[in-house]
Design brief:
23% strand; 34% helix; elongated; alpha+beta
Length: 161
């Protein structure tokens, strides 16, 4: 077996470096994107369920009552598994929402119920790097008399805090 010449060795190192320079950032980007899929998917589900829940109810009862942060503490730089019963409250049941596996975000549902116009905002808070600064994702919606319920756009604050 012959050994590589200096030029062949330098060429092999350059090619390997180039491959790593391309694949490592792509890997990191995909890893971050997978962690951000959780709140986006969850908020879409919750807001759709809230809107479906509003159909057939009087505007003043369109959405379930507010529920605070669930779980009560935002996970910091880790994925957590909730204790049994964490999601077993009337609002989360009406919204058909629970997280059964490990997750990185805590969720809250705020509703304002009035006779002519009711609204909701659902938020996901995460501290992905454990520095105390939160990423926040939110979607709002509303129901008005004689109109179909509406869902707003997803808003993101400090996506990768």
């Amino acid at each position: 077996m012959r050994s590589l010449s200096a030029v062949e060795t330098v060429t092999a190192i350059a090619v390997a470096g180039s491959v790593l320079a391309v694949t490592i950032p792509a890997f990191v980007t995909n890893l971050r994107a997978s962690r951000l899929a959780e709140p986006i998917d969850a908020l879409k589900h919750i807001s759709l369920q809230a809107t479906l829940s509003a159909v057939g109810h009087p505007v003043s009862l369109a959405y379930p009552p507010s529920v605070g942060l669930t779980p009560a503490r935002v996970p910091a730089n880790q994925r957590i598994l909730d204790a049994p019963g964490t999601w077993d409250v009337p609002t989360w049941r009406r919204l058909d929402f629970r997280i059964q596996g490990p997750h990185s975000f805590a969720y809250a549902f705020d509703s304002e119920l009035r006779k002519a116009r009711s609204s909701f905002t659902v938020r996901a808070h995460g501290d992905l790097d454990g520095d105390g600064v939160l990423s926040t994702f939110e979607i709002s919606g509303e129901s008005r008399e004689s109109e179909e319920p509406q869902i707003g756009e997803l808003r993101v604050y400090r996506e990768v805090e």
